[in-house]
Design goal:
heterodimer; A: alpha/beta; Rossmann fold; 12 helices; B: 337 residues; seven-stranded mixed sheet; five-stranded mixed sheet; 14 strands; globular
């Protein structure tokens, strides 16, 4: 439990993070168990048997990149390189888009720096038909499922080729063909919806499962309770992921009760088995997701997974983290950088080297640059062309009722 | 007196209130240490301590329920909901609880709770950061609903709201936080330092939350507006070259029908503006009441200029926003009828 800093003596407790701007980052509260320390439970184990998982941390890669323990998914070289490539691509895309937002090319952007493994490795462990209900920081799923980068950019710059017709804030993607639900700006709404999707899949006798992601701060919402209750009651084939990246805009995880118990531990009270995973270890994320997917597909119900990671960038382009956390905090993060860790693993296996890595990164930067050039040829938010103005009146209902038609005519479009 | 932004004026109101009354406390998502995503509570935690200014978990229902509990135990809480678009998980606590507690306890418990929340568009916030949901709350007996249009009123109305023993929903038009906005997005942004209503007295004062303000006198027609639309109304009237009386409602519940009826009885013509969607918007209530009270004075049908009945679009937000061109067209129409 963190100490109060303002000499509050009345007994009213407000948690404070271990370090504020100008102070030394302090992650002594992050407990890193050694790779292999956490066993793998039986696929049909009862929730109560996962108590030790809620407090431990599933890890496969050690600090030097060696893989060890029962959770090692034993992926082949091609699969490992592919995962590294996808994480690199996600980062290159984020980097460029963030800069372009600063240049006024789009209204808003959110990076997933440091959290690339959470999205990419989980997506790789799922089937492409499995439905995902992500939050706004899992763009890696889109890359893992082969979403066209130009299409992603066209959405973000709200141009004439935006598949969402300029209606959504940038990064609030929808990609139905890729089994990727619409991202909402309202928090936690997708969590119980994912359970509903999974229940429908079960009711129809289909094998596809659902997966959803929320942040640590979002666990405070009432919909978190709704999702866990539904998932438990109906044994829904769903994977509920809490991405604990330590910060919800300016509020540290303790404001959502993360100091008192792990987010994973919340699952057990609902009768849901629980795994707590090193979110910067792509192999651990992959293995835990595989375990939960297998459990769901074999009729044993839902799993709650907490992925422990760190939000390497600001919450969004509208945020200034220098005001509430140490600027260099990410550098002290004990679970490292997911991209560097997988790279070290591949180099250790002799399947990769620094030269190839540098080449990959520069090629990806170039891929992103070219993709943006193409995306921009379809317009930008500022300069257009946008979707036709009249399209703002479409899709409110199945057809345009008289009152909306009249309003469209009133606007003269 | 000093000129300041609406953000600073709100901050100053909270500062004055907390200094004067130790039962006033303030909380919300990112509203403690960070001082709010728009900076309205900046510096208050440092000054008044964690006991009185603190970060809340991301749970709007919890935030409002917590305020209810605190108010029932002698505090005067000011809860911030980060965006009005996020208020709906707290809807049940507002509708079924907060608004009715005085009534259902026959006055044994009162709810001196203020809910501050930024609303409205004009900042490319997309459909989850642009809503104007005030009409929902005007339909609920037991809560007061207010929306200032400038820093001077924001401070005086916030102090009056917090000191009021009824629950108040205090909508802050976020497009006005840093400067007035007359509805033309192509003009360079204006600052409150160049606007007379940016003048904010030091210390404690109140602006009556039962009274509208006539912000421009006139005889040809009456334009009713609140929040951002007050500025759009004034500029549109100027551009149209008409002698319009512009009324800033300031308070939606209970709205100042006396001032409205006096003006409409004088002009005989009326245009009602709001940024929120048209159907079942607050304009519908105003027009219904005006035709009851002023029917024989009316020379023309009353016209509404509002947001469209669609979600707030992101890229096309200026096609959605009821700007000068549409307001001028309505003025012309109501004068020609």
């Amino acid at each position: 439990m963190t100490q109060q800093k303002n000499g509050n003596k009345t007994g009213f407790f407000v948690p404070e993070p271990p370090a504020r701007p100008g102070e030394r980052p302090d992650f002594s509260n992050i407990d890193c168990s050694a790779p292999g320390a956490v066993p793998m439970p039986a696929i049909d184990c009862a929730a109560q048997k996962t108590h030790e998982f809620a407090g431990g941390l599933i890890r496969v890669l050690d600090d030097k990149g060696h893989a060890d323990g029962p959770w090692d998914p034993a992926l082949n070289m091609d699969e490992l390189v592919e995962m590294l490539r996808l994480m690199g691509l996600t980062r290159a895309y984020d980097e460029r888009m963030f800069k372009l937002q600063r240049q006024g090319k789009m209204s808003f952007y959110m990076k997933s720096l440091g959290e690339e493994a959470v999205a990419v490795a989980a997506a790789k462990a799922l089937d492409d038909e499995d439905m995902v209900f992500p939050s706004y920081r899992q763009q890696g799923i889109l890359f893992a499922r082969g979403r066209d980068m130009v299409d992603m950019m066209c959405h973000c710059i709200s141009n004439s080729r935006d598949n969402l017709k300029g209606r959504q804030l940038p990064v609030h993607y929808t990609w139905k063909e890729g089994s990727f639900f619409s991202i909402s700006g309202n928090l936690c709404t997708q969590f119980p919806q994912a359970v509903g999707w999974a229940m429908a899949s079960a009711a129809k006798g289909e094998s596809a499962i659902a997966a959803s992601w929320i942040g640590d701060g979002t666990t405070a919402e009432g919909d978190f309770h709704s999702a866990l209750t539904l998932a438990s009651v109906y044994k829904a084939p769903v994977i509920l992921n809490v991405v604990n990246n330590q910060w919800a805009i300016s509020s540290f995880a303790g404001i959502a009760g993360g100091d008192q118990a792990s987010f994973a531990a919340r699952g057990i009270g609902y009768g849901l088995p629980t795994l707590r995973v090193d979110g910067n270890d792509a192999l651990a994320v992959y293995a835990a997701t595989k375990w939960a997917a297998k459990r769901a597909r074999s009729g044993h119900g839902a799993t709650l997974i907490e992925t422990v990671t760190y939000r390497g960038e600001s919450h969004s382009t509208s945020d200034d983290p220098g005001k509430y956390r140490p600027m260099d905090e990410w550098k002290s993060w004990p679970l490292g950088d997911p991209l560097e860790r997988l790279k070290a693993h591949l180099i250790g296996l002799g399947a990769w080297d620094k030269k190839r890595h540098e080449k990959m990164l520069s090629e990806q930067a170039e891929t992103v640059r070219l993709a943006y050039k193409e995306a921009e040829s379809f317009g930008t938010l500022r300069e257009g062309p946008l979707s036709p103005t009249a399209s703002i009146f479409d899709d409110v209902y199945v057809e345009q009722p008289w009152h909306i038609r009249r309003q469209r005519q009133d606007l003269g479009v | 007196m000093a000129r300041m932004t609406m953000i600073k004026a709100i901050n100053s109101a909270l500062d004055v209130l907390m200094e004067k009354d130790e039962t006033v406390c303030s909380f919300g998502e990112d509203a403690g240490y960070f001082g709010g995503v728009f900076g309205c509570t900046e510096g208050l935690q440092e000054k008044y301590g964690l006991n009185r200014v603190f970060d809340a978990p991301i749970n709007e229902s919890a935030i409002i329920a917590m305020a209810i509990g605190m108010a029932s135990n002698g505090l005067r809480p000011v809860a911030e909901i980060q965006f009005a678009d996020y208020i709906f998980p707290g809807f049940d606590q507002i509708i079924s609880e907060l608004s009715r507690i005085r009534y259902r306890t026959a006055g044994a418990f009162t709810m001196p709770v203020t809910i501050r929340t930024p609303c409205g568009g004009g900042i490319y916030g997309g459909q989850t950061h642009s809503m104007s949901p005030e009409a929902f709350f005007t339909h609920i007996p037991g809560i007061r609903v207010v929306m200032p249009s400038n820093p001077h009123d924001a401070k005086g109305m916030l102090i009056a709201s917090v000191e009021c023993d009824d629950p108040v929903i205090f909508f802050e038009p976020k497009r006005l936080y840093n400067g007035p906005f007359d509805g033309d997005p192509h003009k360079p942004a204006l600052a409150w330092s160049s606007h007379e209503k940016g003048e904010v007295p030091k210390g404690h004062y109140t602006v009556d939350i039962n009274k509208a303000e006539i912000v421009r006198g006139g005889s040809e027609l009456t334009i009713l507006a609140y929040g951002t639309m007050v500025h759009v109304a004034k500029e549109s009237a100027r551009l149209a070259g008409v002698d319009a009386e512009v009324i800033d409602l300031r308070t939606l519940i209970p709205y100042d029908m006396q001032t409205i009826a006096k003006s409409v009885n004088k002009t005989g013509r009326c245009v009602v503006l709001h940024e929120a969607p048209r159907t079942s918007g607050f304009g519908a209530e105003l027009i219904a009441q005006i035709q009851e009270d002023c029917f024989y004075a009316l020379e023309a049908p009353i016209i509404r200029v509002t947001g469209w009945d669609t979600p707030y679009p992101h890229a096309h937000e200026w096609a959605y926003f009821p700007g000068q061109e549409r307001v001028m067209r309505a003025i012309k129409q109501v004068l020609e009828n």
